[in-house]
Write a structure and sequence with these properties.
Blueprint (H helix, E strand, L loop, with lengths): L1 E4 L4 H12 L7 E4 L9 H6 L7 E3 L6 E2 L1 H12 L8 H29 L7 H21 L1 H4 L5 H17 L9 H10 L3 H5 L7
Parallel strand pairs: 1-2
Antiparallel strand pairs: 1-3, 3-4
Helix pairs in contact: 1-3, 1-7, 4-5, 4-7
GO molecular function: transferase activity
GO cellular component, one term: cytoplasm
Keywords: Transferase
Length: 204
Amino acid sequence: MKLYYSPTSPYVRKVMVVLHETGQLDDVELLSAATTPVAPDAALKAKNPLGKVPALERADGPAMFDSRVITAYLDQRGKGGLYPEGARHWDTRTLEALGDGMLDAAILMTYESRLRSEQQRWDGWVDAQWDKIAHACDTLEAIWMSHLAGPLDIGQIAVACALSYADFRHGPRNWRAGHDALAAWFAEFESRPSMVATRPPAAA
């Protein structure tokens, strides 16, 4: 398999964490793709018409894209159990969606500052995206801590990647303020070898 990736993409990081956790890292060749919404990588676009990372090229079918599709495929392939059966299944999928939604908001904030000229930037819109992240942290703190403390699943990975990306690109906004339990959980989770191995480069 070939994975089109960027080391700073939090969606790629979700996939990389799953590869580590399910013991499949050696099964994948990593292909760097320098891509942005306004300048997609040509080789990547040939595999994913949306021009986004991650994209996973397989020998037995068309390339897969969207991190949720790829992580579900890899989990099934590696028998990782990150998508549990029974009552916990839908809670896990909901938590994954929440983590991905936090990532969506954080990435839109990043694009606003990196891809728009200063004259085009809309501070109110950026603040509204951060409000989504802050409210998600409130919700995680209020009702999801018992799930986060449970057996490893894709929901935890998605939330951890979202919180880490918030630190990486928007650290001064300090999502930890007022979220002591969530911050304590994250401090422990980010010490997992899979999280340590997939940290984005500090200078990026």
